[in-house]
Amino acid sequence: MAHTIAEEFLSTGANLEAMIGTMRIQEGFDIEITEEMVDAVNEYVMYVSEVIADMGKGASVRFEEKVELTEVNSVLFGTADCVIVKPFDVVHVFDLKYGQGKKVSAWKNKQLMYYVLGVMLKEDCSRFVIHICQPRVEDGFTFYQGDINELNTFHAELEDHVKAALDPKAPLIPGDHCRGAFCPNRTMCPGLSGLARSLTVKDFSSPAVVDTLSLEHITKVLKYEDTVKDWMSKVKDHAKEMMLQGLEIPGYKITQSQGNAKWLDEDVIKAEFDDEYGDKMYEKKLLSVAKFEKMAGKKRLGKDFREGYTIRPNTGYKIVEEDAKGEPIKIIKAQDDF
User: Fold this and answer.
1) The whole model's pTM is what?
2) Partner of 8 for a Cys bridge, out of 14, 137, 279, 285, CB 3.0 to 4.6 A?
3) DSSP labels for 80-93?
4) Distance CA 29, CA 160 (A)
């Protein structure tokens, strides 16, 4: 639904704010368009609109562009959220990711390289820019620039990999691609379950002693931690569905989960207690930085607004992959002090 209303705004100038609170059917589901969704989509369309403006006259802007790579193999296809082509110069490809899960980087992103290849095989352009737009995660807007030579290398690699993947005897190789993947068989995949076992050394009942793990093993665990956790979560969901259909799993049962308590009718509570408690019943707080910037606008605040009025406190340390955003901190070893 977020993709749908983003396309509506970019192509027709539809009023996003007026959509808040309305219900729409998307792929058979009733979806409410919330303020959070509109805020996220607003960030995406503002980002895309700035690139469109920079391209000037003569640029072609397409939404939900169908991409087919029949030059590589007839099974390859996809849909790019937005494509901007400046003839004889550059192709921009955008991907809106509405999820709040794992942050996705545009750095040599194979999904978008795939889309760019499909577009540039039909366009006379020498360079490309791919954009990942993930407004509901921190620093979720990233881009990567490349040229036709890099794309030609990717083209050759893609042909080799497609050929290997379509081989009837292709091995099952689990990895980061299994997490949140579209494979319907991953809960039963021997390759993925084998990866899980290898990370715990023997089996799930007797995991490895952490202090004894080799550096190589620790690296492997860090690389595939989310993949295995996602797989285990899907196995649990699969088990729940089986039990809801009547299958008994020894040692487990299905119970009703409950959320936090909510008011049956807020107006009744207000009528009953407002005279007694007044303003104490209500909370008032300043808008978040992002929402305030949206309300006031860049013209009023200026490009350096955050530097003068905001701070991003350090909240600890985290391990990320080497190509992730951010400078590594300098670790002072004890022996360096001498």
Assistant:
1) 0.62
2) 14
3) EEEEEEETTTEEEE
4) 39
